[in-house]
Structures are given as C-alpha cells and as structure tokens.
Amino acid sequence: MATHKTQAVGFSFQPATTGDVAALATLHSLVADHLTELHGPGPWTSKTTEKSVLYAMRISRVFVARLGVNIVGTLRLTAKKPWAIDPSYFSPCRRPIYLLAMAITPAKQRQGIGSKCMQEAQRIARAWPADALRLDAYDAKAGAGIFYAKCGLAERGRVSYRGVPLTYYESVFQK
Fold first, then answer.
1. Cis peptide before 129 (omega within 30 of 0)
2. Rounded to whole angstroms, how far apart are CA atoms 175 and 67?
3. Which range marks the domain in which residue 159 is found?
4. Per-residue pLDDT of the chain (175 residues; tens, 9 = 90+)
5. What's the domain count of the chain?
6. What is the DSSP secondary-structure string of the chain?
7. On the CB side of 39, how many CA atoms lie within 13 Å of its CA?
8. Is the Cα dihedral 148, 149, 150, 153 positive or negative?
9. What's the rounded Cα separation, in Å, for the pair 79 and 137?
10. How far apart are CA 105 and CA 141, in angstroms?
C-alpha cells in the first residue's frame, strides 16, 4: 500500500513496518502514562510491549501517522470483531471494519493529527471494502468519545464489558 499524503505539510499516513515496532510500543506507553497522569489509573494504564505490537501487526493492519520522519500517531484496523464489541448495538451490515488502539503522542494532541488519522481510517475502510467503521471508547474522562463524535461518528450504545464502561461509535458508509 502506498503512502497517502494529506494536506498537512509533512504529514503522512502509511502501514507500519517492523522497523516501527519499538517506536509504536513507546508511543502507546507514553499515551497510557499521560492518561494515567491526567485521570488516574484505569484500563488505559497498561504498558505496551514490542511483542504486543508485533502480534497486532500479525492479526490486523497497523498504521502510523508521521510528521516528517517522526511517528506521532497510530491506529489498527481489522475485519475481526474485537472481544468488547457487541454487534447488536450497531447498524446491520455485512462487512464492518473495527478501529482499535488509536493513539496520538501527547505532545501532538489537539493539533488535528487525530482528525487526519480518522479521515485516513475511513478512507482505508471504504477501500477495504467495508460497509461501516466501528469502535469502542472508554466511557470515562480518559475516553475519546467526544473526539469520535466530533469526527462525525454516531454513538450506538453504552455498555459495561468486564466492569469497564464503554461507548460504541460507528460510521456507516453510503453505497
């Protein structure tokens, strides 16, 4: 898959490579530390290892957002339904794609990088081809629900999975 450039100077969004593994583990851990510092411990507190990044690369498509050569964001896309998603809350469709593990480095948050990543995730999901993009977010101050709603995703329900409150979001693609 070729690199897709957006309007932002120096911004690129592309599939992750094994050369990105250490940086991705560090990025996810930095975001976890940042959320824990702001909101206290929670399910977002865990560290990410290089082994877990490599596993994610085997079972899903992992993407990186770069400004110049620096990785500033990441997300995963997969056709396999994640464990915490209950499909009964979502619009009926045949080919949903799930967005997982989106993270933007704390120093670059609230600068439009996340919005650009969401635009790219939707572009890739449409081309997959998929009928919808689905995700869950922590239903807590540390969650990104407000961000996903601002990106145009519709809230589809609130659930508790293994004691963790979640909010489901979805973007359905027009045919």
1. yes
2. 33
3. 4-172
4. 444 444 456 899 999 999 999 999 999 999 999 999 999 999 999 999 999 999 999 999 999 999 999 999 999 999 999 999 999 999 999 999 999 999 999 999 999 999 999 999 999 999 999 999 999 999 999 999 999 999 999 999 999 999 999 999 999 998 6
5. 1
6. ---EE-SSTTEEEEE--GGGHHHHHHHHHHHHHHHHHHH-SSTT-----HHHHHHHHHHSEEEEEEETTEEEEEEEEESSPPTT--GGGS---S-EEEEEEEEE-GGGTTTTHHHHHHHHHHHHHHHTT-SEEEEEEESSTTS-HHHHHHTTPEEEEEEEETTEEEEEEEEEPP-
7. 16
8. positive
9. 18
10. 18
| Count of beta carbons in the 10 Å neighbourhood of residue 115 | 14
C-alpha of 120 from chain center: 11
CATH number at 146 reads: 3.40.630.30
What value, to the nearest 5°, has the Cα angle with vertex 72 and ends 69 and 74?
Answer: 115
Entry pTM: 0.92
Amino acid in the structure at residue 62: V
Q: Which two tokens stand for residue 150?
A: 């601002």
Residue whose token pair is 């209950």:
86
Dihedral sign from CA coordinates of 85, 42, 37, 155 = positive
